[in-house]
Amino acid sequence: MSNDNNSEIDDIIDQLKDDSISPQSNNNKTELTISTPQTLTDENVNDYVYKKSSELVESTLGAIASFRDNILAGSDPKEISALSQLINSASKALDQLNKINLQNKQTKSNLELKKLEIESNSHLSKLIPQTNNIVIATRDEIMQKMFDKPIKKEKIQILNSEIVE
C-alpha cells in the first residue's frame, strides 16, 4: 500500500515539475517599462491615445494567453470569472479602437469629398456665363412676348407744338 501511495506522490510531483515555469523562460518575458510622462498637447494626444491603447490591448491579450490554460484547467469560479472579464475588457478596447479608426477614416473621406465638391462647383461656375441683364416689364407684356401676340398700342399723334416761355 505504501508503494501505491509513493507512486501516486511521485506522479503528482512529476506533474507539478512539468507545469512549473523554468527560470530561463522568465528571462525571456518582456518587462513593463515605466516611461517618463509626456506633456500632452492637442497635436500629440491622438498618438498618445493610440500608443497607450495598443499597449493596454497587447498586455491584456498576453495575460489572457498566459493564464487561459491554467484557469480553465482549474475549477475555481472566481478565476474563470476574472478571465471572462479580462477577455470582455480586451474585446471592448479593440472595439473602441476600431470605432476611433473608422471615425478618423470617415472624417478624412468627408474632407476629400468636400474638396472635390468645391473644386467641381468652381469649375462649373467658370463654364456658366454670368449675366447681369435685368428686364423690367409688366405681366401682360411678358405674356404677350411669350405667346408672340403683338401688344395693342394706342396711336399717339404728335402735333407741332411750341414751347412758350
Task: List the keywords.
mainly alpha, 5 helices
Structure description:
With 165 residues, the chain is an all-alpha fold. The protein has a domain at 40-153. It is 68% helix and 0% strand. It is built from 5 helices and no strands. It has helices at 2-19, 23-28, 45-73, 77-127, 139-146. Helix 3 (45-73) packs antiparallel against helix 4. The radius of gyration is 43 Å and the shape is rod-shaped. The protein starts with a helix and ends in a 19-residue tail after the last helix.
**Helix and strand string, N-terminal first?**
HHHHH
Described by the principal axes of the CA atoms, the overall outline is rod-shaped
Distance between the termini: 155 Å
Q: How big is the Rg?
A: 43 Å
The amount of helix comes to 55-70%
State which percent range the strand residues make up: under 5%
The helix tally amounts to 5
Query: Which spans have pLDDT < 50 for at least 5 consecutive residues?
Result: 22-32
Compute the average pLDDT: 76
How would you characterize the largest beta sheet? none
